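Hey L., structure's done. Input below.
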Amino acid sequence: MKKLLGIGVAVIMAMSLLAVPAMADETMDRIEKTGILKVGFREGSIPFAFMDPKVGKHVGFSVDMANLLAENLGKRFGKKIQIKPFTVTPKTRIPMVINGTIDVETGSTTYTAKREAVADFSLIFFFSETTFLVAKDSGIKTLKDLTGKRVGAARATTNLKAIQERVKAGEFKPKGIVVVETHPQGMLALNTGKVDAYSTDRSLLEGIRMKAKDPDKWMTVDFAIAYEPYAYIMREGNSDFRDFVNNTILWSIKTGKFYEFYEKWMGPKGLVPLQMSQAYKDYLQMIVYPIGEDWWKK
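Output:
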């Protein structure tokens, strides 16, 4: 019921975003003049945006979406638009958007009303939940099992906030909460025994587990303590750019490109297999409104 309610709220939010008329803005003007789209990517948000040492650059579902955005912007402006990548962390991603260092952060950021008060967000494109990665032999199966254990989470994340709220409510009493800056640091803390459980979104934890030296040593617990709707971050006051990002998402769903990217990264043979629920499939179809073949034109 909570998940369906969340999806319903997401649909209402999506419709309200689409109802705002497009206006010329500073971001679109600068992209047209310079031919550069400045994008923030995480270094360890597998499979959405992460640094692949084999190719020496960011890859992932949201990186592919950013490339599609640049391709569509190129069609609009009649010139090649290059992506200038920046590595962001949970702590720096919103400040870097606000101060103009990047135009958009495409990764796995959770949409919240508090964050929307200072930045703009795209349509919600994915749903996950806050949970924990633990050793299989840890005996941790419920939230109460974390009492007396050390838990870790990244700074400035909804996951850390969810843990703190559950502790404040007396639902469990950890020995300590270890705050890290990035997910790779969180996995290192888990590997070295500095924490007994590391928390972030289930989808990301599965990615972290799959990239671990010994994936079978770890498991993601069955329970969740919060739900996480993902969206891309942009500056406020740039509605034309925001609408273009949203239309890129919608166009990718309509043409099947979105599902192609999903299959590549999260399908049965993907890096992190995550089966699409029927509710998620229904949501994606509900947000797609009629859009013309030449929507990207000025």
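Residues 1-5, 17-23 have pLDDT under 50 and may be disordered. The radius of gyration is 19 Å.

-- N.
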